[in-house]
Amino acid sequence: MVSKRWLRRTDFVLIGAVAAILIISLITIGSATHINNPSDERYWYVERQGIFTIMNVAVAIFLMNFDYKILGRYGNKLYIFNIIMLLAVMFVGQSALGAQRWIQIGPITLQPSEFSKIIMIVSIATILQDKFGRINSFRDFIPIALYVGFPFLLVMKQPDLGTSLVFMAIFFGMIFASGIRLKILGWIFAAGVVCAPLLWHVLKDYQKMRLMVFMDPNIDPLGSGYHIIQSKIAIGSGLLFGKGLFEGTQSQLNFLPENHTDFIFAVVGEELGFIGATILLLLYLLLLWRGIEIAKEAQDTFGRLLAVGITSMLAFHVLVNVGMTAGIMPVTGIPLPFMSYGVSALTTNIMAIAILMNIHMRNQTLQF
Question: What gap in Å lies between CA 142 and CA 20, rounded to an integer?
């Protein structure tokens, strides 16, 4: 039986926001996929996502009930495990859609780069807690950048530009929260802008094409620009109230690719309209607001950095995915948290929320 004290420490706003998004996700995945499966497996994706949601709730309860500070003892070991996991993808991983990012374990296909995100948050928080307020020069900054740079390059090698960019969002969010001098941060961003054109030469051909069709989707309307064009048509056709669940023509008639994964927000826009999409975005705003508040209220540096890293990761995912489906950002393959179908991403995000809740509950305990 759940104790009153446990309930008193629970952040019901955070849990409510996540639960609402998960419910919308299952309904939307069902709408997006039911027409493409045989009648006896019509809701296979929904059932699978629902089963793993329930399983991950058990994982979340465990993560909420131990002292998150213990993670700080294993930050470097987790970092080494992360490197081994990413190297394993290079040698025994499975390829799909032109990338080698997955490992098959029995009937389950895992994407190690998804789990890398939460591992990197813990690892970065571990090294930054001892340098809090003491990153005053490039000499202090460079070792930390190299620490993050190695897994960043391994993920780029897969290739997975989207997850690599998530690493950068996490890193800069956490290093900003660690008290780095703003002058140094300004010089870093200036150097990044200057060096950005050089990165063009390390991108794969399909990545270059995605950037070009971002500027003008009509360059390749039946190829790389097809996703963006169909996504914008889907969102625009939803108007104010949408066409109704299971009634979206772009999704139901298979004009919209990856409609249950990367482009699931377009299905929401088409079938639930501007109202439905706005409600979903408000739920994300509520989630991110709680993440920021938990970071501000954390009583220790490690907990504050963990909360900032998790919030930075989720904020970047939402910003890029929604921007991508609306055609105001390049297509990167970054899933929408708790909405896009996928076991690895779902597990990572629920673990992240459980750690956020853990920080909040420990803080409430100290206040009592």
Answer: 41
